[in-house]
Amino acid sequence: MRDSRRPRDTPQHFAHLTTATGGHVRHAIITLAFAISVAGPLGAQARDSLPPSISLPAELARVLTDYESAWPHGGAVVAELFVEDGYVLSAGVPPIRGRAAIAKHYGTSNGPLALRAFAYARDGNTAFILGAYAAHRGDPDIGKFTLTLRRRADGRWMIVSDMDNGNARPNRPSP
Predict the structure, then answer these.
(1) Count: domains in the chain
(2) Is 102 domain-assigned?
(3) Is residue 104 part of a domain?
(4) Could you tell me if 150 and 125 are in contact, meaning their C-beta atoms sit under 8 angstroms apart?
(5) How far is CA 96 from CA 6, 102, 103, 129, 161, in A?
(6) What pLDDT score was predicted for residue 6?
(7) Which of 48, 59, 103, 122 has the fewest CB atoms inside 10 Å of its own CB, making it the most exposed?
């Protein structure tokens, strides 16, 4: 029996959803893992071999447009797009958890941001978006991301986790 006192925006609640839906969310997560594994190192690919942009359903497209709108205003505004204990998984730093830590991580203001999706899936109240980002629409992609989402009772999709990394290979010291 589920503890009704447990907050709904917790990793434990997410795990509960995966079993309560008969494995459909698990299938979506497996699909996400496969999509990431076949995407390869996008930074090494020619521009014309990058995954093409796709149109998202309006309620998922809103997540990306809200992110783009919030980004120039800094971390506190971006953090409001996440569930209370959401995660940011960025290269070179440990996982960042919770809105306050996300706000601190992203700072007080950021430059322009353009997001595009190249894959997505949804199952019930859980979804993911795979995409790429650039400074401005039409510029070459400088990185890629995955967003894991959960739909609230009011129908709004919130970010559970945002994993991103740049397309440039990190500088590694010579052996």
Answers:
(1) 1
(2) yes
(3) yes
(4) yes
(5) 21, 6, 10, 19, 10
(6) 38
(7) 48
List of the chain residues with pLDDT < 70? 1-49, 173-175
Spatial separation of the C-alpha atoms in residues 95 and 168, rounded to whole Å: 21
Structural domain boundaries enclosing 52: 11-166
Taking only the tens place, the pLDDT of each residue in 45-70 is: 445 568 999 999 999 999 999 999 99
Whether 162 is in a domain gets the answer yes
Amino acid at position 66, single letter: D
Q: What is the DSSP code string of 101-168?
A: HHHHHH-S-----EEEEEEEEEETTEEEEEEEEESSTTSPP-EEEEEEEEE-TTS-EEEEEEEEEESS
Quote the pTM value: 0.72
What's the CATH number where 124 sits?
3.10.450.50
Is residue 2 assigned to a domain?
A: no
